[in-house]
C-alpha cells in the first residue's frame, strides 16, 4: 500500500509529531516516549521510515501536556486484536453514532468506558 492513504488519515486526525517533538511536549526523553508507545500507553505510527505520534492524543491540563486518559485502552485493544495503530487512529477520528461524537472527543469528555465498549464492539471482542 502506498503511503498516501496513511498521510490523508494522519492529516484528517490533525497531523502528528515526530518522536522527539512528542517527547518534548510531554517533557520526557525520546526513550521514555518510545517506551510509552511500545507498551501501548501512547499511539505511535510507522509512516515511511519514522515514528509519527498523532497530535490528537495530547491535551493541556494544569499547565502541562498529557496523553488523553483512556486513549491507552483504545491503543491496547487495537494492538491485542492485531488491528494495528492505523486502525486505532481511524477509530478515534470517525464519528460513532452510539457515542454521539468521535471517540477522541468522548475520551476528552472522560467517557472512557463508553469508548472502550465502542472499540470492543467494532473489533468484535465484546462477550455476549
Oligomer: single chain
Structural class estimated from helices and strands? alpha+beta
Tell me the Rg in angstroms.
14 Å
Mean pLDDT: 94
Q: Helical amount among residues, as a percent range?
A: 40-55%
Strand order of the largest sheet: 1-3-2
Largest sheet: 3 strands, antiparallel
> How many independent structural domains?
1
How much of the sequence lies in strands comes to 5-15%
Please give a quick description of this structure.
This protein is of the alpha+beta class and about 130 residues long. It contains seven helices and five strands; from the N terminus they run H-E-H-H-E-E-E-E-H-H-H-H.
Can you put this structure into words, describing what you see?
The protein has 128 residues and is of the alpha+beta class. The chain has one domain. The protein has helices spanning 4-12, 19-26, 30-38, 71-80, 85-93, 103-108, 112-123; strands spanning 16-18, 45-47, 50-54, 58-61, 64-67. Strands 1-3-2 form a three-stranded antiparallel sheet. The longest helix has 12 residues, at 112-123. The mean pLDDT is 94.
Topology:
Blueprint: H1 4-12, E1 16-18, H2 19-26, H3 30-38, E2 45-47, E3 50-54, E4 58-61, E5 64-67, H4 71-80, H5 85-93, H6 103-108, H7 112-123
Antiparallel strand pairs: 1-3, 2-3, 4-5
Helix pairs in contact: 1-5, 2-3, 4-5, 4-7
Tag the structure with descriptive keywords.
128 residues; alpha+beta; three-stranded antiparallel sheet; two-stranded antiparallel sheet
Amino acid at each position: 500500500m502506498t503511503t498516501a492513504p496513511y498521510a490523508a488519515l494522519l492529516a484528517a486526525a490533525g497531523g502528528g509529531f515526530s518522536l522527539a517533538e512528542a517527547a518534548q511536549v510531554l517533557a520526557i526523553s525520546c526513550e521514555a516516549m518510545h517506551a510509552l508507545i511500545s507498551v501501548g500507553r501512547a499511539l505511535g505510527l510507522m509512516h515511511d521510515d519514522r515514528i509519527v505520534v498523532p497530535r490528537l492524543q495530547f491535551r493541556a491540563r494544569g499547565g502541562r501536556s498529557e496523553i488523553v486518559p483512556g486513549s491507552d485502552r483504545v491503543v491496547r485493544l487495537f494492538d491485542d486484536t492485531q488491528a494495528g495503530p492505523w486502525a486505532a487512529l481511524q477509530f478515534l477520528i470517525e464519528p460513532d453514532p452510539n457515542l454521539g461524537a468521535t471517540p477522541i472527543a468522548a475520551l476528552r469528555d472522560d467517557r472512557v468506558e463508553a469508548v472502550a465498549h465502542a472499540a470492543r464492539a467494532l473489533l468484535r471482542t465484546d462477550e455476549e
